[in-house]
Structure formats: structure tokens, C-alpha cells
């Protein structure tokens, strides 16, 4: 109950949404990152690497690297436990130049137990076109830890993933002439006709003439020559800082794992009556060990003992939720039911199924 109050009562202030910069609402056409991926080898692990019997591809890449370095390992049986095959991923940011450095993420693909303390050997990173755009290498920073003994082990976090800050150097630039663009599309991150119309009006009002046109709910077209700026970059500098008050669909988001409920400011509920029960099923296993009498023939056996019961706890009864015209009234009506957060999620599902919840219902 406390979680509902804390999460929902923090949101009424969203009803008076403050203006947001256009740069925080849209993506500019051509100004985006590109995904890179590579396949490499991590060395220097403390016995937590791949077992080559279960990951033969690790031996293949290790042999290839040694051959390129002039070490002949033909016919050799390699069985180290301090190496691991990994996938290396990164994002090439827009306008990245040769010589710049970017972060990379490293993930084990074999049966390695941990990448803690490892070093990534030089790994080319390719784009969707198959071209190499960066090369990664460096010491790993693992986000988890694992320890193992003779009879027990403990793992915290995910030790089979790691990052290398500024671990890749850009070797190839994207062939994109941004300065020659005559039109730039502004793609809304959350498509909405009202928001797109407001962006169009705000841009045209700022320039004092028609320089932008709404194409659909997710796109606004900016005409660069009409802005009378020195270049597309200068035009975007002026456009991206214009403030607009966005309009979004009413939405209820619930997380069933944590029992968290978040409601947008425009959520409305029609007048409904709700009754919620509390049924508990409990099963307990209490096995009993039965032994024969001393010096008697027989053997010790375990006799199962199961206790099962269904408990019908107190229910909320039939309660009426009045129609809410704002978020505060909706929250007050739901909290009047006096149920736990996880029960509230089921109630919201039922209200949505009944057509009384006027919002998009999202379950994670």
C-alpha cells in the first residue's frame, strides 16, 4: 500500500507539463549512431575461461591469432583455462572521426565462469555493411564477481559481461555529407499528431515564416534554405533549443516482478464497482523418518507427510470507485480499496478489461 502512495502521488505535477526542448523530443535525420560488432578473445583470466572441449571455437580463434603473430601451433593440443571467446559490441556515434575513442561492451559466448581481470586482444569491429570501423583492445571492467569452493559457490551480478571505457579506436569515418542536406526530417521519439503540430508551429513561429511542415504523427520536415542559415548545422542549433509542450497518450505501466505501478497525468477511470477477494493456498511437506526397532529386521524409510489447506482471508467487499477527472482523484479512488500493490495490479487489469480504464495498459 505504501508503494502505491509513493509512486502515484509523485505524478500529479505532470498534469502541468513544462515545455521540453525539441532536441529531447526528436531524432534528426542522419544524426544517429551505428551499431558495431566483433568476435574476439579475452586472455589473462584466473582459470575462469572456456573449457576448450565444450568451446572449440575458442581454440580456433586462439590458433589464428598466434599464427598471425608468427607462432606455429599446427598439431598442438591447446588446453588453457585462462582464455575466453567473446562478442564485442559498440555504437559508433554520429560524426565520429578517425582516431576518436568509443566505449565497448564484452560478453562471453562460451562456458567461461568470469571475465574478471581479463584483457581483450585486438578485435576488429564491423558495421552492417561488413566494413571495419573500429578496433577494440584493453583491460576489462567486469560488473560482477563469483567465488567457488569444494562444495559451494556464490555469484553476484553478471561476471561474464564487462566493459572497456574508451576501449575502441575509430579507424574509418562514415561517408555522410551533412552540410549538403537541403531538407532534414525530425522523427518524434513518441509519435503524436498534437506534439508534431506543436513542433511545426513553434519552429515556424521562431523563424517568423514557414520553414517546417508536419508530414505525419512522427515526422516534421525542416526546409534548410528557408531558414536562411549558413548551414544545416546552424539551422539545427537554432531549432533544437526551441521549447515545446508535448502531448502524450494516457498510459498505465505496471511491473509485476516488483509490484510497481506508474500512471501518467492524463489517466482517467469511469465510475465502477470493484470487489476483491483474498484466497491463499498453502502446502507444507513434513516427511517423517521411520526406523525399525533395535535388533529387528527392516530398514529405515522416509514416509511423506503433506498438509494442504485453502484459506479464505478477508476481502475488500464491493467498493465503488468514482469517475476520476484528474490523477489525484483516480489515485484516491484506487487507494480507497485498501489493497496491496500486487492486488492493485490485478484490479487495474480487470478495470481495463471492463473498458473503464481510459489509458494504454502496459505490463512489464
From TrEMBL:
Predominant cellular place of this UniProt entry's protein: other
Keyword Signal listed: yes
Where in or outside the cell it occurs: the entry states: Bacterial flagellum basal body
Q: Which Pfam families match?
A: FlgI
Q: Which UniProt keywords apply?
A: Bacterial flagellum, Cell projection, Cilium, Flagellum, Periplasm, Signal
- Where, if anywhere, are coiled coils annotated? none
Query: Does this UniProt record's set of keywords contain Signal?
Result: yes
- Family stated for the protein in its record: Belongs to the FlgI family.
What HAMAP family does this protein's entry cite?
FlgI
Q: Mind telling me which PANTHER family this protein's record contains?
A: FLAGELLAR P-RING PERIPLASMIC PROTEIN FLGI, FLAGELLAR P-RING PROTEIN
Q: What does this protein do?
A: Assembles around the rod to form the L-ring and probably protects the motor/basal body from shearing forces during rotation.
Complexes and interactors? The basal body constitutes a major portion of the flagellar organelle and consists of four rings (L,P,S, and M) mounted on a central rod.
Q: What is this protein called?
A: Flagellar P-ring protein
> Which species?
Halodurantibacterium flavum
Which gene codes for it?
flgI
